[in-house]
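Suppose a colleague, Dr. K., hands you the sequence of a protein chain of 750 amino acids and asks what its three-dimensional shape might be. Before reaching for any lab equipment, you can write down a predicted structure in token form. Begin with the sequence itself:
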Amino acid sequence: MTKPIAVTGIGVVCAAGNDAESLWARIIVGDSAIGRASAPMLSDFPDAYVGEVDDRELVDRMEQEDLAASREVRLSSLAIRECLSAHGGSVGDGKRAGLVLGRCQGQVDGGPADQIWMHATADVLAGRFDLRGPRLTISTACAAGGNAIGEACDRIIAGEADIMLAGGVDLLQRGTYAGFNALRSLDRRPCAPYTRSSGLNLGEGAAFLVLETVERAVAAGRRPLATVLGYGLSADAYHATAPDPTGRGAVLAVQRALAAASIKSDDVTYVNGHGTGTPANDSTERRVMRAIFGERVREVPITGTKSFVGHTLGAAGAVEAVVTVLSIDRGAIPPTANADEAAGDDIDVVPNVARPAPIDVVVSNNYAFGGNNVSVVFGRPTAGEAAVADLPPTGEIYLSGLGLVGAPGLGVDEWVEAVSNPTGAARTTMKELLDRRNFAPANKWRHMNSFTRACMAATRLCLEDSGLTLEREAREGTGVLVATMAGPAATMLSAEELSQGDTDSVNVHQFANTVLNAPAGAVCEVLGLRGPTTTLLGGGAAAISAIATAAQVLRTGAAERIIVLGCDEQGRFFEDIQRIVGSSPDSTPIPDSSACVAVLLETEAALRERGGTAYAKLVDARQGSDTFHAFRHDPAGERFAEVVGECTARIDSSIDVVVSARNGDPDLAAAESVALDTAGATAAQQLAVKQFTGECEAASGMAAVALAALAVSGRLASSLPAGDDAPVRHALATAASFGGVYGACLIGAA
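The predicted structure, expressed as tokens, is then:
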């Protein structure tokens, strides 16, 4: 990060409190809200202890629109209203206000499509609160809430928004409880992190923060409650469900967060730990504490918020961020509830009662299935001051490798042939492509579902295409970002059906693969990658969001290179979407398909050091949104045009090629026409990427970026109307997601 970001509002709904003040009142006296489950869906699980939200206590605070909404929207809306009220009640210009939502699961009260199409919650919330800036849903399981806060800060620092709402939501669900039960991870009484360490309790809730620059807050007369100083991401590259016992990946996340914040470990007042209460997690965190603080380990307390509210999964990092902000603002270190004070003295867990203390710097850690780790550094605000840290020079960012898996074929050559000869190219199914070779060791490959295999194949092909050799140092500096609309949909639906049956019917391996970040985790595990890792949801535009996210990570020096994947697979939920999209008599929807596309982004320094070559350079990537309709694009195209205009503003020459987002929907076609006309790109040569890939959502968005790079490199010259003699200087890739999110990525000659 280049500057601290102010927290000017917080809101929370969880088992221990339906607002921030109620939560804090229980925490400072050590009053845990974990108790026996009352939900009928958990009635056949004996001794189920959870952190439940009592909806009856919330009705008086709900607005009319809340009563008809899904439950996660109701809880999120209450938390957002609280944090906006604390902030001052308004987001200002909605085009400069965005939302990053952390989630682990789909809707508990929705149908199969709702279980999968998880970014729809962010679409609904954005419409309610007029958030038309960057809109992302992050699904890195139990690390999603903290990940969302870091991503929101990046969007402000990148100049894409003035204000961001960041947080998370997740609910208690039978399928998830059954999965953790099958893993033998649950405690049969209220959990005791770091002391008894006999298991976790699941919880539910929603929490959000209002984020803006310190300068903006002070100028408006708002008092920052705390500041976000920096954050760090990493991958364990170890196991689908178990943390690396050495703590290596978790240590990297903390080190990256401290480096981003320009803070030394000696400056840390306390750590808000992940603190699930499982033996594996607690022992790993002890190793992380010793590695970071050395001889000071007893002098830096570590406390566990989950001992009060349960493990709220995708909301956990956000709930813990609210507690951290309150601790800084109120001058007290929160305790760990249910702690055995005689359990040992290797770490200080602040047992059972809060400890008054001036708090300057707090590190909040979260770890997740799939090996995702996130650390966020919070600090005491200093009104009017915002020191700017020097960033290492990165120069240009280059696209130096492509991995292509989908209907046009396997690899760059087959895709170029398909685009150059669209009528004669064979169309290949994903199964046929993945049967050609194993892209991972046999013992790993046979346990992967089709989605993870596609991600693994595209990543391998991308690395081979780039000529990159992954030595140890290169592995730690290489990140993985996955963009998807639905992730491993078939696996998720199958696991959900199993969990509705006998409590012993859950397949542990299948459950581990239901989290949407599992594919990225598997890629990191096979290749030993420990760089920044995250998973973004949201259809076609999620691919552009992932490119923008990766570029910002590279600019801050947190990684040297990032493999960015867009992947979606054909599933029965697409039938519902196509039925809705195809309801217009003028539309001829392109059939849905399966594909996975990987793009390697590298800093100029990293590319030069290894002597690599590039297809093209990344000029810019932008994302914005409207609140027109949940399933339709605004044919007026105003917001789409603004996004394209922002993306192309840095160049003074024309766009030569446009790789279009069109998919047969007349509203999208009209909106894109307006956008291209506004940007002066109507004369550009156009490629309709979905003509070759089918509608593959995030994979189609990433394929558009890949084809733009190939066009700039000259590989597609014979397929462009202008022919071989017209060099392509700039190519524009566009993408759109239902719910009104638009992306534009500008690629320039290398």
